[in-house]
């Protein structure tokens, strides 16, 4: 199948036309309108420094339903010990930068342009961060976190990082608890990793994901900071 060259307008071809590896389109930009249109269509950007801007819609799709999060015995123990504290949207630029730095020197898709684009989405109230703080010292230390995009009843998880064991898992637990409290029905994890599968995420066919995404987006968007 062909990979589509995007026009100047923030529109995308149908995800059903993506290649077998999920690649759908090339080009365009990272303007807020295009990013939001992409997420609403089940598409996300993913590329490395020096590559053209690439857009993906993989099949199958990894999702985590907020009511199906699996907590291992060791993670439950970590949560009970209360070594960590959690905040939301306090340090978004630092969190996205740390997510990119953790993947160096192997390479990261979180380029400087991506950082700027998602920080702008955060300013507009669509992108959010979870910060996890280690509280056992004299002052709290940023131990881990994650970020993603919220639209309607779906949260699109983008990346996470940790500097202390279990910190990114604690961030995910805090995120899921917030999604439950705000009636989110879907957490998009994009592509499978052993880590996320152990936490209860599951792969579903892309057509099923798109149907569930459409239902989740029937809830009006609620942009604004997560206090």
Protein architecture, described:
This protein has 227 residues and is of the alpha+beta class. The protein has two domains: 4-60, 2-Layer Sandwich (Alpha-Beta Plaits), CATH 3.30.70.3550; 62-205, Leucyl/phenylalanyl-tRNA-protein transferase, C-terminal domain (Aminopeptidase, 3-Layer(aba) Sandwich). The protein is built from seven helices and eleven strands. It has helices spanning 32-40, 73-81, 92-102, 112-123, 167-181, 194-198, 206-216; strands spanning 4-5, 23-26, 44-45, 54-56, 61-64, 84-88, 127-134, 141-151, 154-162, 186-190, 202-204. The strands form two sheets. Strands 6-7-8-9-10-5-11 form a seven-stranded mixed sheet, sandwiched between helices. A hairpin with a 2-residue loop joins β8 (141-151) and β9 (154-162). α3 (92-102) packs antiparallel against α4. The radius of gyration is 17 Å and the shape is globular.
In short:
The chain is an alpha+beta fold. The chain has two domains: 4-60, Alpha-Beta Plaits (2-Layer Sandwich); 62-205, 3-Layer(aba) Sandwich (Aminopeptidase), CATH 3.40.630.70. It has helices at residues 32-40, 73-81, 92-102, 112-123, 167-181, 194-198, 206-216; strands at 4-5, 23-26, 44-45, 54-56, 61-64, 84-88, 127-134, 141-151, 154-162, 186-190, 202-204.
Topology:
Layout: E1 4-5, E2 23-26, H1 32-40, E3 44-45, E4 54-56, E5 61-64, H2 73-81, E6 84-88, H3 92-102, H4 112-123, E7 127-134, E8 141-151, E9 154-162, H5 167-181, E10 186-190, H6 194-198, E11 202-204, H7 206-216
Parallel strand pairs: 1-2, 9-10
Antiparallel strand pairs: 2-4, 3-4, 5-10, 5-11, 6-7, 7-8, 8-9
């Amino acid at each position: 199948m062909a990979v589509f060259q995007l026009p100047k307008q923030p529109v995308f071809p149908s995800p059903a036309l993506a290649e077998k590896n999920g690649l759908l389109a090339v080009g365009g930009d990272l303007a807020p309108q295009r990013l939001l249109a992409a997420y609403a269509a089940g598409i996300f950007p993913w590329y490395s420094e020096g590559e053209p801007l690439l857009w993906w819609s993989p099949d199958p799709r990894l999702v985590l339903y907020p009511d199906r999060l699996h907590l291992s015995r060791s993670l439950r123990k970590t949560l009970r010990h209360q070594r960590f504290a959690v905040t939301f949207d306090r340090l978004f630029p630092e969190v996205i930068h740390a997510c990119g730095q953790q993947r160096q020197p192997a390479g990261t898709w979180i380029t400087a342009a991506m950082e700027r684009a998602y920080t702008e989405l955060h300013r507009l109230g669509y992108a959010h961060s979870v910060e996890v703080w280690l509280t056992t010292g004299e002052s709290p230390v940023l131990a881990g976190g994650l970020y993603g995009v919220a639209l309607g009843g779906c949260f699109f998880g983008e990346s996470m990082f940790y500097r202390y064991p279990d910190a990114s898992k604690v961030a995910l637990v805090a995120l899921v608890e917030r999604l439950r409290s705000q009636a989110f029905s879907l957490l998009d994890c994009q592509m499978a990793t052993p880590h996320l599968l152990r936490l209860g995420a599951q792969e579903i066919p892309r057509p099923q994901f798109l149907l569930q995404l459409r239902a989740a987006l029937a809830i009006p968007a609620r942009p604004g900071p997560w206090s």
